[in-house]
Automatic annotation (TrEMBL), chains A, B:
UniProt entry keywords in alphabetical sequence: Carboxypeptidase, Endoplasmic reticulum, Glycoprotein, Golgi apparatus, Hydrolase, Lysosome, Metal-binding, Metalloprotease, Protease, Secreted, Signal, Zinc, Zymogen
The protein's assembly and partners: Homodimer. The monomeric form is inactive while the homodimer is active.
Signal peptide annotation: 1-20
Stated name of the protein: Carboxypeptidase Q
Subcellular location: Endoplasmic reticulum; Golgi apparatus; Lysosome; Secreted
Taxonomy of the source species: Bacteria, Pseudomonadati, Bacteroidota, Flavobacteriia, Flavobacteriales
Species of the source: Chryseobacterium daecheongense
Length: 452, 452
């Protein structure tokens, strides 16, 4: 019995060892293929330089829909289609912010209206600026002190976090709520210090949201050094601000997410890999989220190129409208619910095209533990961190239906220097970092496809 | 007895736990101080923009010596001094490389002479180019096929490695040996494809070496896309190259490494942290190795700022002449040997100012294992990789004397895009990535100082 047990154990060990070795070889082939021959970087150049930024509802977004469909066909998808999505249309138009100090002169400040914000309808709106550093400080201000004023929410991005997403989370509440908080006490509009880790004057846009019961006053962002200068002025004198902007919601429009897949050889259960195709209307949407799009297409191309037989259907979804409505993700989830199409797993890449460090897992413990047990396979590719328990916003609807979801976790140090700005350009993306992220997603999907 | 053992174990656990907690708090304070208040990034801007590149023997290098001494005093060093070093002087001068194809026209190629290479003495040297892809291929060429020719060593940087330093290692032999290999078979000069991971026309310089027994023919580097174009031409036609250059060794000169320290409270055993102050004569020497210099100074500043009582002397060494002679490191080691000054540990940062991922350890197993046992403390700072068994080149002499040595291991994906080029500028360095590297070195030195 003892000997038999020993033999069984040996055979089992050999099988497991053989398995791990086979997987390790496949991981290496995937990485070699992508680092040597990956097309993601040149595709990202094409997307960012020939189409550029592509806010939902814009002509550029519609161009990117055709572009993504073509790239999926080029990558070898068996089937490519557009999924109809009704999206909100927000337009920026012209905008300017000026301040006047005690010397009477007006000075222009570099700024961006926040996404989804209403503007001033092309008229000047002005008033005295009052500054607060925190929500707590604002809560204590009596309404009469805010009435007719401009509120400057001067909350700094916390540089002390190693995980910059925590700084973004903390400061995010200011971007989302500043306008309605201002309106509730009768203020005319809100200025926020950007959610930015950079020491520069670049303003960061991003989605805000109005409460139902208050007037829709404008909200704008200024960069960190601009905010520093304004803070200094306000510590010494009265400052008047004047905003003139044309932005606002312009109804809804029919648009599309783009989907391509390679059909499963064993069954039609679906593994989703995706990013969002839309971007904000500044810069080039290179890291956010052109990177996620080209990485996802690279996954599909690599399966085809290496001739890996996928048991299940591997589907790339290029989601519409993540930035200011999440309508692409919602529509995709709704369609899955209605069709009752079985989804095994979904992963999104939407945290920038930087060197991968981990995979965040939002699923039950046995599933988590199984993926974590593959950790040694990922280590040579720089992936060691499986601590996160969140996933990409576009796949929340899948998560809420019980699908195990995940997100690629790249190095976070540089993201909030350029996130939602004119600085999010192709030049900020490194070829090897981008491709290594695609390799890691391909490796994970290879394991999921094989073992689930 | 059992109970007693239980109690002892409990007390021991509490002590160990208390210890780990205390260390964890100290790690956090170090990281917060550096990410919030670190001066390394602005100091790097000052060094790169106001002094710029600083090859050993140049006036700029001498300026950087004064600069580093002042920064060490500003950081709170108890003692700052210059260590005399005799350094080789190499100067580039004017240089140009042209090729002539079958249409008879001459075309200029973007190039850099390799460091330490002799030039053509300002005269045109020309000949037909022959191309080889590998040393093996070159070895098989009879001398008569090389005689009077220009040899183009067209060995590509291997993009397939995740660890780019392996690609650098493999291709490095071409940079070091191309000139003497060419001379041995009677060739006039050598052209190498740069040791570069970038798909651009930027040439990478770097040290080469002459064998004693052969003529010192010139060696130059061209960028990857230039090499691609040249390869394409050579596949179809005869191509002549013409080099004109003034570079060469200009004897020796007295120069200095810069040293600053905070004296140990318990004893005078020394912990070294350093980088090299010199750079190549193109770009700004920002990642290589301005980053290592400002990170090392940040370590000292942080000990002083946080009032951490160092048991042993913590010494920052800004080594002279790493790039083309290693004389600073050699002189430092010689001085230590002569004085018999006890050295506990030495770490160098010389792999770029990118996000830290690990610490490479070159020491005996018990020492290694002790540092690895601290791994959980480092994990929140993105440091998980203790696999490496090498250390910085400037501290090899210390290693050879039995001192435990180490090197900071940053993310390697971007380094060889810009290494030894005009592109190694301040703009390529990210503030948070640079400072996080300084934090990790400070944390490690805190642990070594406390436990060794």
């Amino acid at each position: 019995m003892k000997k038999l047990l020993g033999t069984s154990f040996l055979l089992l060990s050999m099988a497991v060892f053989g398995q791990a070795k086979e997987d390790s070889i496949q991981f290496s082939q995937i990485s070699l293929e992508i680092l040597n021959n990956g097309k993601g970087y040149t595709e990202l150049k094409d997307l960012t330089k020939n189409i550029g930024h592509r806010l939902s509802g814009s002509a550029a977004y519609e161009k990117s829909v055709q572009w993504a469909a073509q790239k999926l066909r080029d990558a070898g998808a068996d089937k490519v289609w557009l999924q109809e999505v009704m999206i909100p249309v927000w337009e920026r138009g012209k905008e300017s912010l000026h301040i006047q100090t005690s010397n009477g002169k007006w000075k222009s400040l570099k700024m961006l209206s926040l996404g989804n914000s209403e503007g001033t309808g092309g008229k000047d709106v002005s008033g005295e600026i009052i500054m607060v550093k925190s929500l707590e400080e604002y809560d204590q201000l009596p309404a009469e002190k805010v009435k007719g004023k401009i509120v400057f929410f001067n909350h700094p991005f916390n540089q002390g976090y190693v995980q910059t997403f925590l700084g973004y989370r903390d400061a995010g509440v200011y971007r989302r709520t500043a306008a309605s908080l201002t309106a509730k006490k009768g203020g005319k509009f809100a200025i926020i210090r950007s959610l930015s880790s950079a020491f520069d004057d670049v303003p960061h846009t991003g989605a805000m949201k109005y409460d139902d019961d208050v007037p829709k006053v404008p909200a704008v962002a200024i960069g960190n050094t601009t905010a520093d200068e304004l803070e200094k002025l306000l510590n010494n004198q009265k400052v008047t601000a004047k905003l003139n902007s044309n932005c606002g919601m312009k109804g809804e429009k029919l648009s599309h997410s783009v989907i391509g897949e390679i059909t499963g050889k064993k069954d039609k259960s679906v593994i989703v890999v995706g990013g969002h195709l839309d971007s904000w209307d500044v810069g080039e949407g290179a890291h956010d989220d052109g990177a996620g799009i080209v990485q996802s297409i690279e996954v599909l191309r690599t399966f085809k190129k290496l001739g890996i037989k996928n048991n299940h259907t591997i589907r790339v979804v290029c989601f519409a409208n993540e930035e200011n409505g999440l309508k692409g993700g919602l529509q995709y989830g709704k369609t899955v619910k209605e069709s009752n199409e079985k989804h095994l797993f979904a992963i999104e890449s939407d945290a920038g095209g930087f060197s991968p460090r981990g995979i965040s897992l939002e699923m039950n413990e046995p599933q988590r533990n199984q993926i974590i047990s593959w950790g040694n396979l990922f280590l040579p590719y720089g992936v060691y961190n499986f601590e996160g328990r969140y996933s990409g916003a576009d796949i929340y609807p899948l998560r809420d239906m019980g699908v195990p979801t995940a997100e690629l976790v790249p190095d976070p140090q540089r993201y909030f220097d350029i996130h939602h700005t004119e600085e999010d350009t192709f030049e900020k993306v490194n070829r090897r970092e981008l491709l290594l992220g695609a390799a890691v997603m391909t490796q994970l999907i290879y394991m999921i496809d094989k073992n689930w």
